[in-house]
Design a protein that fits this description.
This protein has twelve helices and twelve strands. By secondary structure, it is an alpha+beta fold. It has a twelve-stranded mixed sheet.
Length: about 350
């Protein structure tokens, strides 16, 4: 006999033993705790038990605001695949969600779960690119597998007077300033609120489950930096930023290669380079040139009858205003704090 149950997060942690909770960053308890602390997200775990053990589960957020009503697997995640034992388990989860939230649409950010992609209830909405670098080979072999242009950029950067080092909490603020300006000036998008990175620091970096790696000029100015997180045997290349005016020095390439070395020193097996929009050709090319293998993150969805999508005009106009070139950075930062909880 199988049994389908639901528990809110984080109460589920004391009630149920998850199978392989560190299987990926985005369904791990630490990451979900960061999301709850930052955005007050309503998170739940729905699971199927067989013979007293959890055999399948999904992690999902319940989104209800002026923009939309949505069940998402899972908000603020590149992807969120729970282990699914049987094809019919997805039908059980789907029917339970529709029964509990009949007017909500369902969104699934899928990478490795082929059973979700095969489920007849879901349609493909869009796709993003995903890259994973296997680093089990010797460092010299990894260097040879990288593209010529990547190796050339690293070599070029090594000839400069840049210093690559692990940053402290003060450097996190420098990272955030770069991150905010890049998102604002290049992409006309909000950066995540600083509280998000502060919670990441307290949950991951302060306890050695990640590090902030930066490229600095001799005077101490940060030119580029990456927030790396560790989950299981994988290093996650999660957040990267840089000063566009200094890209000719190739700091991003050098920071990444040093990240590979640090991952090897820690005995990790792979580097997850995350998602990239199909239109981000430069970013996709950078990831491919590291030697990483590409795949698709498939966005799946279900819409109940007569579901009305929000046009999100308010969100769009607010974003365009707060990221205008003449708007001070502190206004953009305040805007991200206000609007980001609605982007779940």
């Amino acid at each position: 006999m199988s049994k389908c149950s639901t528990w809110p997060f984080p109460q589920v942690l004391t009630k149920v033993k998850w199978p392989d909770p560190e299987r990926n960053l985005f369904s791990s308890p630490d990451w979900l705790s960061v999301l709850v602390k930052t955005y007050n997200l309503k998170l739940f775990v729905k699971f199927i038990e067989r013979e007293g053990k959890v055999s399948s589960y999904i992690v999902y957020s319940v989104v209800h605001n002026f923009l939309e009503d949505k069940i998402c697997m899972c908000s603020y995640c590149d992807y969120c695949d729970g282990p699914i034992e049987r094809k019919e388990d997805w039908d059980v989860f789907f029917e339970a969600l529709c029964r509990e939230y009949p007017r909500y649409r369902i969104a699934v950010r899928n990478l490795r779960d082929s059973l979700a992609r095969e489920n007849a209830h879901f349609k493909v909405l869009s796709k993003e690119r995903y890259h994973l670098l296997d680093i089990r080979d010797d460092l010299k072999v990894l260097w040879k597998k990288a593209h010529d242009s990547f190796r050339s950029a690293v070599t070029q950067a090594q000839k400069t007077n840049l210093t690559i080092k692990v940053g402290d909490k003060a450097d996190l603020k420098r990272f955030y300033d770069l991150h905010l300006r890049l998102r604002k000036n290049k992409y006309r998008l909000f950066a995540q609120p600083y509280k998000f990175f502060d919670n990441i620091w307290e949950t991951y970096l302060s306890s050695g489950k990640g590090f902030l790696l930066g490229a600095f000029e001799p005077g101490g100015t940060m030119l580029a930096a990456t927030v790396y997180l560790i989950c299981g045997d994988t290093l996650y290349y999660k957040f990267n930023t840089s000063n566009p005016s200094t890209l000719k020095l190739r700091p991003n390439n050098l920071v990444f290669w040093e990240g590979v070395k640090m991952a090897k020193e820690r005995g990790l097996k792979s580097i997850d380079l995350g998602s990239s929009g199909q239109e981000q050709e430069g970013l996709i090319r950078f990831k491919e040139h590291t030697g990483a293998r590409g795949d698709d993150i498939t966005h799946l969805g279900f819409n109940p009858p007569d579901y009305k999508f929000s046009q999100k005009v308010i969100l769009k106009n607010f974003t365009r205003f707060c990221t205008a070139p003449w708007v001070p950075d502190f206004v953009t930062r305040l805007g991200s704090h206000i609007i980001y909880p609605y982007l779940a």
